[in-house]
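Table S7 (text form). Paired inputs.
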Amino acid sequence: MRWPTLLFIFIFTTLIIAMNGESAEPEQVHLATTGIPEEMVVQWGTEEDTTVSCPSGNTVEYGIDNDNLNLSKNGNNDMYLWTTCTHTTLLSNLNPNTTYYYRVGGDGEWSNVYSFKTLEENPDKIIIGAIADHGTSSNAQETTSNMEGENLNLVIHPGDISYANGAGSGNSIGDQSVWDEYQNQIESLTSESPHMYAPGNHEEDSEPYGFDAYESRFFNPGPNSFWYSFDFEFIHFVSISSEHEYEPGSTQHTWLKNDLEDANENRGNYPWIVVFAHRPMYSSNGDGDGHGSEIEFREAMESLLFDYQVDLAIWGHDHHYERTYPVFEEEVYSNNSGTQNDPFYKPGATIHIVAGMAGRSTYDGLEEPQPLWSAYREVAYGYTLFEATNTSINYKFIRNSDMQIADEFWLVNTINVQEPTETPETNYNQTNQTEDTSLINQIKELNYLETPFIIIIIAITAIFNLKFRKK
């Protein structure tokens, strides 16, 4: 008899609190993209009194004047078994190449005013950031601060985001307050540049949470939280999960095959394909406390990347930076230097990046000797970014300690041939070519006059004799 009574009291009390709840102060402001240039997804969190009710406002006020936020849009909210409520509002019909100012909240509780800038219409280039294994350490904060000055149009994050769960892979229930700490820590970056994610092993709590925090806190443009794709100017991005079933015949494997097939046929509109997920198919950081290449994941998925000519694959999980040559089944397809003067031109296989150096303690377990497929590797904190155009990708790893470019490469899909702008000086070969051209023209004229064949033969013989006499 006591349990039904206690349950009734709990439910009744919760409803009373919910009915009398007040709006909470907005925090954890972050942006996401739908892939449509005229849209921006705005998300934020509020700390509520219960895990079952979110009375705080879902409104974004925005405009092109910092002092006149004359537009507004309402959204929705979501909660899991935690008191943080995530609010999501979609802004649409935005103008290109425009700075928008915005604040979030409602019912008397508003955030500070933030801003973001929409892309130009048909931009010459875009700049994408890529980091993984971030967390809340001082090194992670330094990475965030350094990235703020890069004018990033988008950031992709291949998993192990906050480290709320230090054990990972469903082995314990993490401290959910670390999610709040993390999202407040990176707000200065996420409030101005949209971020898109893939799940890592440290996003998975044991039951009853599972991946609830990841699913509730972050927007994605597809019906599935764990694998999805979107187009962003020149690039088709594909986020997949190394933490869910991926074997051939699985739902994810079938989806990926269909998505990459469509993307490869749509190269005319989006010439580049970039895949990102957490566990790396190629990593030489496998000694000691490292992890190394995820062989089972690679054997299940790599053939799809090869068949549909995925250009870049960006991973995390191992806490260092590493870049491969274009590689498939450990066979190197191009050993170009990758410099601007010697770029990778349609190399025929994917270049893999491990970008797990964003803030979590580094792994110093590099295998020796360095594998032939490994082009560059370094154990250092930092971040990566790449500038993309219709015809090129320029990828860089920037080291935090000195803000120097530690590694850089170029990938191109077109080789430009420069036409000479001045008439070259005459030389012997060119003089002979001119005389030969004149000779051919004389022969053609004879044919056009429908001259009898025997006369043409005599004439050709005479012309050749005249030429050799001149020499």
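Next pair, protein 2 of 2.
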Amino acid sequence: MDAQGSVAARVVAATAVDAVLNKGRNLDDALAGAGIDKTNEADRAMVRALVFGTLRTQLRNQRVLDLLADRPFRRRDSLIAALISTGLYALADARRPDYAIVSTTVDAAAGLGKPHMRGVVNAILRRYLREQDSVLAEADEHMDAHWLHPDWLIERVRADWPDDWEALLDAGSRQAPMWLRVNLQRTDRDTWMEQLSASGAAKAATHPELDAALVLDQAVGVTQLPGFLSGQVSVQDAASQFAAPLLHAKPGMRVLDACAAPGGKATHILECCPDIAELVAVDQSLPRLERMQENLDRLGLRATITRGDAANPEGWWDGDPFDRILLDAPCSATGVIRRHPDIAFLRRPDDIQALATQQEMLLEQLWPLLKPGGRLLYSTCSVLREENDAVVTRMLSRTADAEVLDLVRAGGPKSALPAVCGLQLLPGVGDGDTDGFYYALMARKLMA
């Protein structure tokens, strides 16, 4: 990669980081708005590495910047602060020589329309190199800089998981592994692993409980995965691959996947039981539903895709009840921060109660759509009890025909921690190195 390319990548990366931190954009929108699609392939990879790494370490970067800068940056110079953060991350990552990182980061100030700030960027980064050990030690005295999570979330996690909070937070600040799901309708796991090995793209290891799950030793582009375009394999974290077997759809059943897009769990359900009568997939987002249709087409699967609000079934339900319902509810996504580091900056403490209220409403509205004797699987990618056990407990307390089922007997993950109503997977805790995920399985009783 030439120096000019590196400068262009740093301009895009700083713009995306600033959009997340100061404009409240989610990471996908921030990258798109910064122009990542206009960069070449090498720069694109560099941008993503810089942005994800910078956001994962931003709470430490900010503490370091506060110590090194002569005065706080004005809001109009937030782009330069973001640029320096990318430089601090790159220096800590140490994949390129220090002088090259400093030089290209300084030059990027001009690319951001701030040539007069080149001296400031240079001075701060060089001072960091001189005082790195002492500055990092002082920054590390702050909880947010040490654990790389906001203070409010540290306290919530610590209260909810007093024995596991440190491992959970540590895992949440690291790069997530790349998990795959082999389509067992089209190939078998061993055969596909042989194809991967022959390709030289990566090495894979199996999951002890999931027949179709593989984890790669390094992340690769999907086009490097043998048979991806022909539907032999999909990208899906192991934690979410438990949903389909726990739902346990059978031939002839009618299944609802509420909040379904972009379709990872829906397609897995169809792969596990291709003879179900119908899978209805509901979501409000048209772009996400379009992605779901693309995934179905790639895998050669069919589903009834419906645009609608899962909390308002009157707008889309045909009155025919379902044997199985999967509700993968909107949540804080605190179990997938390592995959989406922008969450640490976009979520606020007050969001959790609002999300719990929304989750309860979804359960209340969807429960009548379930046949007597049917099952509803509730899941979130949150690690917070307020969105998980608390929601299910309140639902059970006011729903006479609902009972919770034992997920351990239903084949739930052995590495999960027991919760009051279900099971909780935590990143960094137990075997498998999965995302944080909660499951609770409920049955609708046959009332006399």
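The chain has a mean pLDDT of 95.
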